[in-house]
């Protein structure tokens, strides 16, 4: 490895006047003082957990549905043609949540988080696989029954309907979500709204 005298001379000229630091090192200490940002993050973490746990019905009496029962719901303002298209599975499914083998409590938390995440990313049509409950000795679909109660409780859910056979039939449900704030703003800009 040969040295380049021109490069070495250039380096020395650039380094002229620079002096070497002693063994002084920066004094880095980690302080456990609470900053305003730390306090905000703590409050959010505690409130998010509370919302996850308390938002959806958990122990209230619900009507138990059977394996073949169809789930359907449509908020006022959702056009019949849009609902028909959802029912027929004509919209692209943008995300899916599988609740098989989950407890009711775990399912409740997962459904809430799933819908919240879908809204954050601007997803509009998703599917939730809940099972039919056919293996249940009483032929009751517990998760399906709770899901039929939870979804209308979520204001971001515009409509839902049991899926077509190729997507799980009465063991799954299509869910249509509202546009998130970003999508609504883009829509207003696109169509000249204020």
From TrEMBL:
Identify this protein by name. Answer: Smr protein/MutS2
The cross-references to PROSITE patterns, in alphabetical order and at most eight, read:
SMR
SMART domains with a match to the protein in the record: SMR
Gene Ontology molecular function terms on file: DNA endonuclease activity
Superkingdom, natural source: Bacteria
What sequence ranges are listed for the domain Smr? 97-178
Q: Which NCBIfam families match?
A: endonuc_SmrA (NF033154)
Q: Matching InterPro entries, A to Z?
A: Endonuc_SmrA, Smr_dom, Smr_dom_sf
């Amino acid at each position: 490895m040969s040295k380049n005298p021109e490069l070495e001379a250039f380096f020395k000229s650039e380094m002229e006047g620079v002096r070497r630091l002693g063994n002084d090192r920066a004094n880095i200490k980690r302080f456990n003082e609470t900053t305003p940002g730390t306090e905000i993050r703590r409050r959010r973490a505690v409130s998010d957990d509370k919302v996850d746990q308390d938002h959806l019905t958990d122990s209230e009496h619900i009507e138990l549905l059977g394996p073949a029962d169809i789930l359907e719901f449509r908020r006022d303002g959702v056009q019949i043609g849009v609902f028909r298209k959802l029912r027929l599975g004509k919209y692209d499914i943008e995300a899916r949540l599988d609740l098989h083998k989950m407890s009711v409590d775990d399912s409740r938390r997962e459904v809430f988080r799933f819908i919240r995440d879908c809204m954050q990313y601007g997803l509009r049509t998703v599917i939730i696989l809940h099972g039919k409950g056919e293996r249940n000795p009483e032929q009751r679909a517990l998760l399906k029954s709770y899901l039929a109660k939870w979804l209308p409780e979520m204001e971001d859910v515009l409509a839902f309907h049991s899926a077509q056979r190729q997507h799980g039939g009465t063991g799954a449900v299509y869910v249509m979500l509202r546009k998130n704030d970003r999508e609504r703003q883009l829509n207003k800009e696109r169509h000249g709204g204020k």
